[in-house]
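Please, structure for the following, as tokens.
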Amino acid sequence: MSNYITVKRASADGGPARIEEAFKRSAEVDASRITVEVQDGKVILRGSVRSWAEREEAERTAGRPGSSEVDNQIVVNS
């Protein structure tokens, strides 16, 4: 019996739009305050948020399948 299943790594192409949409669905992240950039599969987050929890949630959301690395440059404004 042969298994012809091929597993391909997901790419971050179209990633900024995908990630920004995920931010909009998240009740914990204010998407309007965060910018997303993708370079060679690496997601770069910039902007400001109100809390460390919001910053961490943004990083978790951006790091979902398709992203090899997340560079979280978001600043927390208290």
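The two ends are 60 Å apart (CA to CA). The helical segments are 15-25, 52-62.
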